[in-house]
Amino acid sequence: MNIQLIDEFRRRTNASYEEAKYYLERFNGDLLEAIVAFEKEKTGHHNQNRIHVGASRFLYGLMRIVQKLIDIKLIITDKNFKAFHIPLIILIALGPVWHILVFAAIIMLIMGYKFTFQEIPDPNINVENIVERIKNKARESH
Domains (ranges, CATH) in the chain? Predict the structure, then answer.
């Protein structure tokens, strides 16, 4: 995140560095959108606002974690260099059968397969956009 952008946000809103960074990251560096959201969340009752901001930060953090778990992939490569990409989130979901996965991995290693982890962002899967669409649909239904 650009320090000049954070300083400009702070100058216009009297926010802390942490708040400035949070809102600018949340709105992908869009200063105007970040300021509008900051001011919207700062109006109203102080305690309710802190709860709302805390919940928003938690949701944003959770979305970032889920996005990372989708972007980090286990790459299984066979002898012919054919690669299979498996998102880390799928491996975590298969956690209850970890013993079967370990057994399968050992057999695959013996057969010559290679395993690596690599972060490969998928432009088709954006958790933040998905959550935003769900929010919009919920608002439309009310």
Answer: 3-68 (1.10.8), 72-142 (no CATH)
